[in-house]
Amino acid sequence: MHWSDTIARFTADWRRSLHDDRTPPELADYIPDGGAARVAVLADLIRIDLRHRWERAGDGRPVSAYRAEYPEVASPPVLVDLVCEEFAARSGHAPLTLEEFLTDYPDVATEVRERLADEAQRADDNALILDRPVDDIAPGQRIDDFDLLTDLGAGHLGRTFLARQLSMQRLVAVRFSTGRGGDRIAPLDHPHIARVFDQRNLIVPAGAGTRFGRLVYSQYVPGGTARDLLDQRRTGPESDGGALLLRAVDAEMERRGEIRSADSRVRAEIAALTWPETVARVGRRLAEAVDYADRHGVRYRVVTPDDVLFSAAGEPKLGEFADDGVRGLPYRAPEDRGAANTPDQRACVYSLGVLLWELLTGERPVTLESGGGIAPDSLRRLPADCPPALLRVLSTCLESEPGRRWSSGAILAEQLDLCLDPRARDLVDPPTDSLRLRLRRWRIPLITLAVLVPNMLASIYNIDYTRQLISSQLSEQAVQQLRIGTAVVNTVGFGFGTVVLVWFARHLIFVPYGLRRGGTYSAETLRRARTDTIRFGGRASIVIFAMWMLAGSSFPIVIRGTSDAITAYDYTHFVAAHALCGAIALVYPFFLVNFYVVRCLYPIFLAHGEISDEDAARLRKLRRRSGIWLIAAASIPLTAVAGATLLAPTDLEQIIIEVRVLAIASVIAFVGVYLLFLAMENDLRALERVQAPTPT
């Protein structure tokens, strides 16, 4: 393989790793064994690896680590190239002075300073020189490749114009600003992040001298900002729902002289939403964008209304931002105000929570003096139709303690997506007066009854069936021994089964109790609890059926030593009766337990952390198994009647009443099971939707 193919393959593997959030490729797997090109290829591979590792938060690797592992790059000029590459990568993602950086590389500090100075000089030599200050730039002027059409306003980042890029014949937003610095949002490609196409250095006249600046041109997003939406929210009723957002977008487009967007599927979807659902929809998309940026090395600290742009269709996009210490202070997390270290995503989750609450109510939920949390007055401003799920999600965002917030934008997006599904959010956050909410505390007795009642009914039928057809033909000694042996087998077998079921239900029993008392659990414990809860109904049914079959197969052993001869006909009767009763004890607890679990218990865990595709897969499996067990429930009366026809006429005459009762009761029970199946099917589909949402 040619060395260029190796570099291309390594680059492609890194891109897939960033896109899918997978483990990065191992550099050592791509380095050629020897040859004249080894050092050059190794240097290129290290550049790629270094750049991408600093794009992934927490994965940055210094050149000193590569130098220790690969002595070939431990000396100039290769070392100088790599150190300059590291400085560019690190300074683009966090504040870093050159002198502070060079303390790690004193042996090449002089060469690095000279190299960076030469690069800066070349950049200045290629800079665009303006003949007027930024404040004097106006629509109608042509600057470089851009015809300025409309003044879009000035902000903390500079002055922005709608312009036509002549070389590409497209509309772009052009921003002129003073000051140096890299644009941290430029490399991001996400549907809810405004795309930055490119930038150029500027030299701007300033009094008797000059100043440096930047020209940045990016995707034009015509629907205004969240600031404009807030103005509409404060003057228009939230009862207008999603139409309020569309009205704000249309008003801003009209102000800019844009033609109002034609109705589309997206606008129709937004118009049909309530105002809380509209806020959740906006928040979900922004949270996805924040998480995407963080996974690609750009960590947001604050999101303000000016940072959120809207397309003509009403879709939100994160615009450019700056992390200066004053701007956006009301939206900063408490730990981020004056913090020396860069906070993690929880700071941005807090900021998003403040912004979404402000959109929801028209006012920010906290003051700088309060230090976090929701002020009581803010709760009174909530819309009447605000679902409890959205209140819970935003309240978690606004926790003053970072450890109690959603840990990432991805988890916040999942929770907000849940708020957009009426059935799913009602399952996870039922009304305070809901019967389901009260039944959550009674999970042990309710699950016990769901398992015990079908087993007791099956036992009554089995005892009567055995007495009529089997015990009546045995001697008194055999009957007495059968009773004792059956009691021993049932006590041991079903006692062991009970221990197994308690073990399977340990997370289902204890984790909800801990959560209700304000406890916290690791993501792995919550994942285990979700898994055990959704599997418990099936596990319980299988354990119970196994105990029934164990009891049935013990018949010859129990009466061994008596004078009675066991015929194959008698043994078949005994096992068949236990199999039929085991089927009753298998099918009906499956539906009763799973209906209660899906409707009351499983949603508890969805309110406390990450929701994964694995959860959705388990729900789909449960839904498919439910269809299979529904067929089994329908077959019970048919099996009972068909089995009765195989009996001898004299035997059938003895149990005809029992068979009729079983058949009629099974038909009635099937109707109830079918209704449970339909309700559970709808619940499972709703939970699947929020655990495997469609891409936005």
Automatic annotation (TrEMBL):
<dbReference type="GO" id="GO:0004674">
    <property type="term" value="F:protein serine/threonine kinase activity"/>
</dbReference>
<keyword id="KW-0808">Transferase</keyword>
<keyword id="KW-0723">Serine/threonine-protein kinase</keyword>
<keyword id="KW-0067">ATP-binding</keyword>
<feature type="transmembrane region" description="Helical">
    <location>
        <begin position="536"/>
        <end position="559"/>
    </location>
</feature>
<keyword id="KW-0472">Membrane</keyword>
<keyword id="KW-0547">Nucleotide-binding</keyword>
<keyword id="KW-1133">Transmembrane helix</keyword>
<dbReference type="InterPro" id="IPR000719">
    <property type="entry name" value="Prot_kinase_dom"/>
</dbReference>
<keyword id="KW-0418">Kinase</keyword>
<feature type="domain" description="Protein kinase">
    <location>
        <begin position="146"/>
        <end position="418"/>
    </location>
</feature>
<keyword id="KW-0812">Transmembrane</keyword>
<dbReference type="GO" id="GO:0005524">
    <property type="term" value="F:ATP binding"/>
</dbReference>
<feature type="transmembrane region" description="Helical">
    <location>
        <begin position="571"/>
        <end position="597"/>
    </location>
</feature>
<protein>
    <submittedName>
        <fullName>Serine/threonine protein kinase</fullName>
    </submittedName>
</protein>
<dbReference type="InterPro" id="IPR011009">
    <property type="entry name" value="Kinase-like_dom_sf"/>
</dbReference>
<feature type="transmembrane region" description="Helical">
    <location>
        <begin position="655"/>
        <end position="679"/>
    </location>
</feature>
<feature type="transmembrane region" description="Helical">
    <location>
        <begin position="492"/>
        <end position="515"/>
    </location>
</feature>
<feature type="transmembrane region" description="Helical">
    <location>
        <begin position="628"/>
        <end position="649"/>
    </location>
</feature>
